[in-house]
C-alpha cells in the first residue's frame, strides 16, 4: 500500500485504488489533484462496467465459495464464473435466508453464508419501516470500507459545481442509535451506527462537519440534536452545506430549532450548555466550541422570533451553497418544504445505499430532485436486475435476471444483489428505472419499494401513486391558500363496507392568515381520488367497491410523535422514514387517531370511463 496515504478514508481510498488500479493516463492526471483522481476513478469504473462486475463476482465467490450456502445448498463446487453462478444460485428474499441468519445470530460460527476466512462480524438492522419487519443483514468487518470512499467521491463530484466546497464545513445532522447483541454475541445495529463507530469515520479527513463525534454517538436524540444544533449555530459562518442522510431528518432538525431556539440562544449568550444535556462526553465536546457570544444570541433571537420561517436555513447559515440530503423515493415529498426553509437552495441527493450494500452515486448532484438518477458503482457488489414486465407467475425468475451492463433504457427492474457479506442473488425490494448511461454504466431513477401500500380489492396503490395524489391536492388546493401538507401517511379502513382509504395529513401554514376550511379539505379528498389509478376509480365509480376517500387532519407535532414512537422501538433517527402505510400497525393508528382534529370525505365520485371513452 502507498505509505503516503493518510489514515482511514484516504487509506481506504488507496486500497480501493489498489484493487482497481488506474491506467497510466489517469495516474498522471491524479498528480494534479486528489479530486481529479477521484473523478478519473469514476470515469474508469463506469467505462469498464462488465469487466469490473465479472471480477467482483469472482472475488465474492472466491471469498465465500466454501460457505455452507454456496458449497452445499447451491453446489457451486468452488466455481467462480458467471455461467455456473447463474445456473446454480437461486434468487432469494429475506425469508429464504432467515434460517441461516438465525443460526449465525444464535452463535453458530461455522461458515454459513460467508467463507471461513471472512466470518460475519455484525448484523446491520434495516430501518424496518419498509417491509414491516426489521431485517438482520450480515456484515463482515472489511466490507463496509468498500463504500467509505463514497464521501470523498461525493465531495469530488460537488467540487466540480461548487468551487471551494472542500474548504468550508458542513452542518450535517448524524445520529447513532443504541445497538443490541444477538444471542450468539454479535452486535446488531444500523448501518449508520456501524459507520459512525468505525475508525474510518472518526478520522476521515473527507468529512468536515460542525457536529462533534461525541454528539453524533450520543444515543439520546434530544441531547444529540441539541449539541449538534448548538455547534452549528456557533460556527454558522463556516458552514457551506447543510444536510442529513434523509430529508425527513433535516426537516426534523429545522423543527427542533423552531421548538428550542430560545434555550439555544440563552446558551450562546452565557456560553454555558443547557443542563438537560447530561452526557459527559457531549458536554466536554461542546465546551470546546461554545463561548459567550451575546451578539450571536441576539441574532438567533431576532431571526427565530419573527414567526416567519421561510428561508431560515440561509438566514442563519448565510454561506450555505446547497442542501445535502436524500430527497428521492419516499423522501421526494419533502422537496417543497426543503425549498421553503432554504429559500430554494439546490438539494443534492448524493447517494443510494442500503443495509445490504452501497449501491450508487448521483453524478449530477445539483440537478433538480425530480431528475435524479443514480449510477450504480460496479465495484460495490454484483448487481442483477429482475425485469418488472415479466409474467409474475413464472417460477423461473432467476433465469430472467439481467446483468448490470445489459439493462435497457426505459425499463423498470427490481434490484437483486450479491454482496461480499454473504447475500447471494438477494432481492432488495427497490424498483428502479433505467434513465440512461454514463459511459457504459447504467443510471437509474428510484421508482418505489416493491410493496404495494394500499389495496381494498383489485386496486393496488403504491407509494409513488399516493405521493402524486397528495402532491396534486396540495399544490392545486392548499398552496394557493398559503398551506401545505407537512407530512402524511395512510391506511385502509375496512371497518366500513365498502372499505375506503384514510389519509392522515399534518398541515403546515406557510402564511399565518391561511384558512383551510371543510370545503377545501373535501375538495382535496376528491382531487386525490382523481389522481389515483384507473383501477381505483373504476372500483369507486363502476363497482362501488371502494368508499369515498377520507382525509383525517391531525394536530401539529403528530408526525414527530410518530417518529419518537418509532425511535422508542429501536429505529434510528438517521434512518427513520415515515411509514407511508400504517394499516398493519394498530398502535400507530391509535396514536394517529388520538390526534385527529377533523375528518373529511370525498363529496362525489371521481371521473372514470371505460377505456376508449375518456
Ligand atoms: P435501510 O437498509 O433501512 O437503510 O434502507 C435502505 C432503503 O432506503 C433502500 O433499499 C431504499 O429503499 C431506500 N433508499 C436509500 N437510499 C435512497 C435514495 N437515494 N433514494 C430513494 N430511496 C433510498
3D architecture notes:
With 614 residues, the chain is of the alpha+beta class. Among the domains are: 22-141, no CATH class; 168-320, no CATH class; 452-601. Helices cover 38% and strands 18% of the residues. The chain contains 22 helices and 20 strands. An eight-stranded antiparallel beta sheet has the order 9-10-11-16-15-14-12-13. Strands 2-1-5-4 form a four-stranded mixed beta sheet. It has a four-stranded parallel beta sheet with strand order 3-6-7-8. Helix 2 packs antiparallel against helix 3 and helix 13 (247-270) runs parallel beside helix 17. It is globular. The termini are far apart. Residues 1-32 and 128-133 have low confidence and may be disordered. Bound molecules: adenosine monophosphate (AMP). Adenosine monophosphate is lined by residues 126-127, 130, 191, 326, 328-329, 349, 352-355, 428, 430, 446, 449, 575.
List keywords for this structure.
GH3, acid-amino acid ligase activity, binds adenosine monophosphate, disordered N terminus, alpha+beta
Layout of helices and strands:
Blueprint: H1 9-19, H2 24-30, H3 34-47, H4 49-64, H5 68-73, H6 82-88, H7 94-105, E1 122-125, E2 136-139, H8 149-161, E3 169-173, E4 180-181, E5 187-189, H9 191-197, H10 199-202, H11 213-217, H12 221-234, E6 239-246, H13 247-270, H14 280-287, H15 294-304, H16 312-316, E7 322-326, H17 335-342, E8 347-348, E9 351-353, E10 358-361, E11 374-376, E12 382-387, E13 402-403, E14 412-418, E15 426-438, E16 441-449, H18 463-478, E17 483-493, E18 500-509, H19 518-531, H20 534-543, E19 550-554, H21 558-568, H22 586-593, E20 596-601
Parallel strand pairs: 1-5, 3-6, 6-7, 7-8, 18-19
Antiparallel strand pairs: 1-2, 4-5, 9-10, 10-11, 11-16, 12-13, 12-14, 14-15, 15-16, 17-18, 19-20
Helix pairs in contact: 2-3, 3-8, 12-13, 13-15, 13-17, 18-19
This protein binds adenosine monophosphate.
Residues 126-127, 130, 191, 326, 328-329, 349, 352-355, 428, 430, 446, 449, 575 line the site of adenosine monophosphate.
Family: Belongs to the IAA-amido conjugating enzyme family.
GO molecular function: acid-amino acid ligase activity
Pfam families: GH3, GH3_C, GH3_M
Amino acid at each position: 500500500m502507498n505509505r503516503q496515504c493518510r489514515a482511514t478514508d484516504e487509506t481506504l481510498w488507496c486500497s480501493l485504488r489498489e484493487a482497481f488500479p488506474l491506467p497510466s493516463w489517469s495516474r498522471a492526471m491524479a498528480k494534479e489533484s486528489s479530486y481529479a483522481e477521484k473523478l478519473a476513478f469514476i470515469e474508469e469504473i463506469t467505462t469498464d462496467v462488465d469487466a469490473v462486475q465479472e471480477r467482483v463476482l469472482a472475488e465474492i465467490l472466491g471469498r465465500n465459495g466454501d460457505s455452507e450456502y454456496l458449497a452445499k445448498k447451491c453446489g457451486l463446487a468452488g466455481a467462480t464464473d458467471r455461467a455456473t453462478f447463474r445456473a446454480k444460485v437461486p434468487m432469494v428474499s429475506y425469508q429464504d435466508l432467515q434460517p441461516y441468519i438465525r443460526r449465525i445470530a444464535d452463535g453458530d460460527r461455522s461458515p454459513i453464508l460467508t467463507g471461513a476466512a471472512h466470518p460475519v462480524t455484525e448484523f446491520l438492522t434495516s430501518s424496518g419501516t419498509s417491509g414491516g419487519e426489521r431485517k438482520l443483514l450480515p456484515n463482515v468487518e472489511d466490507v463496509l470500507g468498500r463504500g467509505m470512499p463514497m464521501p470523498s467521491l461525493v465531495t469530488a463530484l460537488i467540487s466540480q459545481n461548487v468551487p471551494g466546497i472542500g474548504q468550508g464545513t458542513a452542518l450535517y445532522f448524524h445520529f447513532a442509535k443504541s445497538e443490541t447483541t444477538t444471542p450468539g454475541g454479535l452486535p446488531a445495529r444500523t448501518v449508520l451506527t456501524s459507520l459512525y463507530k468505525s475508525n474510518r469515520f472518526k478520522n476521515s479527513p473527507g468529512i468536515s462537519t460542525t457536529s462533534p463525534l461525541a454528539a453524533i454517538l450520543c444515543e439520546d436524540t434530544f441531547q444529540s440534536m441539541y449539541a449538534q444544533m448548538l455547534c452549528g449555530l456557533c460556527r454558522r459562518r463556516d458552514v457551506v452545506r447543510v444536510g442529513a442522510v434523509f430529508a425527513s431528518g433535516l426537516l426534523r432538525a429545522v423543527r427542533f430549532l423552531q421548538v428550542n431556539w430560545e434555550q439555544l440562544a440563552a446558551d450562546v449568550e452565557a456560553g454555558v450548555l443547557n443542563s438537560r444535556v447530561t452526557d459527559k462526553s457531549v458536554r466536554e465536546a461542546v465546551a470546546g466550541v461554545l463561548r459567550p457570544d451575546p451578539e450571536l444570541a441576539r441574532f438567533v433571537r431576532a431571526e427565530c422570533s419573527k414567526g416567519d420561517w421561510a428561508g431560515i436555513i440561509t438566514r442563519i447559515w448565510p454561506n450555505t451553497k446547497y442542501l445535502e440530503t436524500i430527497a428521492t423515493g419516499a423522501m421526494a415529498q419533502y422537496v417543497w418544504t426543503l425549498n421553503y426553509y432554504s429559500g430554494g437552495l439546490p438539494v443534492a441527493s448524493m447517494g443510494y445505499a442500503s443495509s445490504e450494500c452501497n449501491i450508487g452515486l448521483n453524478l449530477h448532484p445539483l440537478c433538480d430532485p425530480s431528475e435524479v438518477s443514480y449510477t450504480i458503482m460496479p465495484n460495490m457488489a454484483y448487481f442483477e436486475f429482475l425485469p418488472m414486465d415479466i409474467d409474475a407467475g413464472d417460477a423461473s425468475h432467476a433465469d430472467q435476471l439481467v446483468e448490470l451492463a445489459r439493462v435497457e433504457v426505459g425499463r423498470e427492474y427490481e434490484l437483486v444483489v450479491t454482496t461480499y457479506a454473504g447475500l447471494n442473488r438477494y432481492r432488495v425490494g427497490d424498483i428502479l428505472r433505467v434513465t440512461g448511461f454514463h459511459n457504459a454504466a447504467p443510471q437509474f431513477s428510484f421508482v418505489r419499494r416493491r410493496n404495494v401500500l394500499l389495496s381494498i380489492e383489485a386496486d393496488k396503490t403504491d407509494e409513488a401513486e399516493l405521493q402524486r395524489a397528495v402532491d396534486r391536492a396540495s399544490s392545486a388546493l392548499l398552496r394557493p391558500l398559503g398551506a401545505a401538507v407537512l407530512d402524511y401517511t395512510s391506511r385502509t379502513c375496512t371497518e366500513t363496507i365498502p372499505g375506503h382509504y384514510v389519509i392522515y395529513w399534518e398541515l403546515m401554514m406557510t402564511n399565518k392568515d391561511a384558512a383551510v376550511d371543510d370545503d377545501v379539505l373535501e375538495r382535496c379528498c376528491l382531487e386525490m381520488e382523481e389522481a389515483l389509478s384507473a383501477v381505483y376509480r373504476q372500483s369507486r365509480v363502476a363497482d362501488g367497491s371502494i368508499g369515498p376517500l377520507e382525509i383525517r387532519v391531525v394536530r401539529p407535532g403528530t408526525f414527530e410523535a410518530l417518529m419518537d414512537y418509532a425511535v422508542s422501538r429501536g429505529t434510528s433517527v438517521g434512518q427513520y422514514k415515515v411509514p407511508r402505510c400504517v394499516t398493519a400497525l394498530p398502535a400507530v393508528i391509535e396514536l394517529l387517531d388520538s390526534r385527529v382534529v377533523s375528518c373529511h370525505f370525498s363529496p362525489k365520485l371521481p371521473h372514470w370511463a371505460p377505456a376508449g371513452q375518456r
